[in-house]
Amino acid sequence: MAGRAVILLGEGEPAAAKRRLLERAGASIVGEEAAAALAIVAIEDDAEALAAIARLKARGVLVNAVDRPEQCDFTLPAIIDRSPVIVAIGTGGASAGLAAALRQRLEALLPATLGPLAERLHALRAAIRLAYPALDDRRRALGAAFAEGGALDPLRATPEAVGGWLATPDRPSDRFVTLRLRSADPDDLTLGEARALALADRIYHLASIPAAILDRARADAVRIAADAPPAVREAGLTVWMEWA
């Protein structure tokens, strides 16, 4: 939004809150008649708001209508800024209050060192590639390092930890893990089980394992329905899931 025109209509705290958000993003706030691609309508009166929304949409302007999700062409997420790390929490307009509450909870979890850690990782990208030339090895090594308690745990590691981690590169071994599930509820997964799913390269599972649990794995992990675990060891981390 930096330097771009955005129409803002309305008065009172809802409009003031949107104004603060736009100013923070560096937008140029203009009135209804100005040329702009986006508009935020924070008018409390229904008839007045709907009339303004109709006028703007007739011009091809994309509209965010405060507290009127059915009128929104786009929504604005709650933002956690640990630049260059940005966390956006959206509910598709269902509840801005819920997004704000989640942001407040996550603000307390994400340390101020998260941004500098990301910058240090960016600065040492060439060294990381040199230490782990193969893409799969690099992804596995970083996944293990970023895991809870790992060398680069994002909630605990300082930027200086990257150098120490690179000084003693750990070659990820081929591993096989069996998960014996006690419940179809993904919230019943232990921390260790959830971590194994998040790091797995491939997942062999009984056909009866629910999709809700499989969805806790990486999106690009291979999922293979089978009656028994694989007989041959494969590269990376392989997970077999069965019922306890």
Report on the structure:
The termini are far apart. The chain is elongated. The longest helix is centred in the first third of the chain and has 14 residues, at 12-25. β5 and β6 form a beta hairpin. The protein has four domains: 5-71, NAD(P)-binding Rossmann-like Domain (Rossmann fold, 3-Layer(aba) Sandwich), CATH 3.40.50.720; 78-109, Double Stranded RNA Binding Domain (2-Layer Sandwich); 114-167, no CATH class; 175-243, no CATH class. The mean pLDDT is 93. It is α/β, with parallel strands linked by helices. The strands form three sheets. It has a four-stranded parallel sheet, with helices on both faces. Strands 7-10-8-9 form a four-stranded parallel sheet, covered by helices on one side. A two-stranded antiparallel sheet has the order 5-6. It has helices at 12-25, 46-58, 96-109, 114-123, 125-131, 135-146, 161-167, 191-199, 211-214; strands at residues 5-10, 28-30, 38-42, 62-65, 78-82, 85-89, 175-181, 202-205, 222-225, 237-243.
Blueprint of the fold:
Blueprint: E1 5-10, H1 12-25, E2 28-30, E3 38-42, H2 46-58, E4 62-65, E5 78-82, E6 85-89, H3 96-109, H4 114-123, H5 125-131, H6 135-146, H7 161-167, E7 175-181, H8 191-199, E8 202-205, H9 211-214, E9 222-225, E10 237-243
Parallel strand pairs: 1-2, 1-3, 3-4, 7-10, 8-9, 8-10
Antiparallel strand pairs: 5-6
Tally of contiguous helical segments: 9
Radius of gyration: 24 Å
Structural class: alpha/beta
User: So what's the overall shape?
Assistant: elongated
Q: What's the pLDDT, averaged over the residues?
A: 93
Which residues form runs of ≥5 with pLDDT under 50?
A: none
Percent range for β-strand residues: 15-25%
- Fraction of residues in helix: 25-40%
Element-level helix/strand string: EHEEHEEEHHHHHEHEHEE
Termini Cα gap: 52 Å
Q: Major sheet: order of its strands?
A: 2-1-3-4
The biggest beta sheet is recorded as: 4 strands, parallel
E-strand count: 10
